Amino acid sequence: MLPLPRIDKLFFIVDFLGVFVGALGGALATIRDTRYRYDVVGVFGLGFVSALGGGIVRDVILQKGPPLAFTDIRYIVTALAGATIALMFETRLGRREEILIVWVDAAALGLFAVAGTTRALNAGLSELPALLLGIVTAVGGGSLRDVLSGRTPRIFERGQLYAFAAMLGSSMFLIGLLLQLSRTWDTVIGIVSCTGLRMLSLRFNWRTRSVRTSDVAL
């Protein structure tokens, strides 16, 4: 067993940052959606789902009481702040804003991967379940947003590395704990690894392969 990280300020800082950038990225993605014209309820609703969905799923699986998002009002306030800031970009989604969305989404992925893994370890789970819950936390909000938007979750389709990036971030965090690095370095390494792989996959168009290589005649 790896040494269990303490529930301290660092965990909450990472978790709240994840919620903020998750809401920001989710709301921005909703605003720029070309299939539907969402109103303010849609922007805030899907922003909240992006920010809090993965953590709620994680906490329900852990069965350690009500999800943190429902017991600590700061989570909802943080998500509200992120979605509100996104509305400021409503009429200014140019090239720079497009780049911002990509970076925000990648950063949220890394933050949630580490926060989810930490939360699972603190709940007494071993390394493999903690790794899986780190991935669930990272991709859960975006997947729920896709479902509510009438899409197949991106993580299940061929495309740039997303779940793999979350897995790398969670794995690097666990390896850091195994090497008994400081909590700060563990956290930074996990977040940077996930965010970096996600951005590199976009920059160099690294993509997963489809299992079916050709259309199957019925």
Write the topology of this structure.
Blueprint: H1 9-31, H2 40-62, H3 68-71, H4 73-87, H5 95-122, H6 127-148, H7 163-178, H8 183-203
Low-confidence stretches: none
Into how many domains do the coordinates divide? 1
Count of DSSP H/I helices: 8
Q: Helix share of residues?
A: 55-70%
- Sheet with most strands: none
Number-wise, the strands total 0
Mean pLDDT: 87
Radius of gyration in whole Å, from Cα?
A: 17 Å
| Proportion of strand residues | under 5%
Q: What spatial form do the alpha-carbon principal axes imply?
A: globular
Structural class: mainly alpha
Order of helices and strands: HHHHHHHH
**Amino- and carboxy-terminal Cα gap:** 50 Å
What does this structure look like?
The protein is mostly helical. The chain has one domain. It is built from eight helices and no strands. The longest helix is centred in the middle third of the chain and has 28 residues, at 95-122. The N and C termini lie far apart (50 Å). The mean pLDDT is 87.
Question: Nutshell version of this structure?
Answer:
With 218 residues, this protein is mainly alpha-helical. 70% of the residues lie in helices and 0% in strands. The N and C termini lie far apart (50 Å).
Q: What tags apply to this protein structure?
A:
mainly alpha; single chain; 218 residues; 70% helix; globular
